[in-house]
Amino acid sequence: MIPNLDANAAMRETMDAYSDMRLHSGSVQYKAVVDWINALLVQHQINMTNCGKDKLADAQVRIKQLMALRASMVDPGGASTGYTFD
After folding, report:
1. R_g (Cα) of the chain, nearest Å
2. Which of 3, 7, 40, 72 could cross-link with 79 by S-S, CB 3.0 to 4.6 Å?
3. By residue range, what is the domain housing residue 79?
4. With contact defined as beta carbons under 8 Å apart, do 78 and 22 qualify?
5. pLDDT tens digits, residue range 27-48?
6. What is the pTM of this model?
7. How many domains does the chain have?
8. Can you give the three-state secondary structure of the chain, one letter per residue?
9. Is residue 21 part of a domain?
10. Contact residues for 18 (Cβ-Cβ < 8 A; gap 6+)
11. Cα(38)–Cα(41) distance, rounded to whole angstroms?
């Protein structure tokens, strides 16, 4: 990967890659990835009930990241161009 310091070029590359990914949204493989992300979400939510207080914040961040990833794959409108996290 070559670092890209041009914000506009980086945004174009991101949106091109996202558009290419969404072309496969009806495929079995795409649905399998969404199912895998759903399983990871459940796993991390269950982990939150058992982890120590010191690990809770990290678990919450991972859940937010997975939710954002899943939303970018399945929600109408898809990926956000703004901030992902609070």
Report:
1. 15
2. 72
3. 26-86
4. yes
5. 999 999 999 999 999 999 998 8
6. 0.72
7. 1
8. CCCCCCHHHHHHHHHHHHHHHHCCCCCHHHHHHHHHHHHHHHHHHHHHHHCCHHHHHHHHHHHHHHHHHHHHHHCCCCCCCCCCCC
9. no
10. 72, 78, 79
11. 5
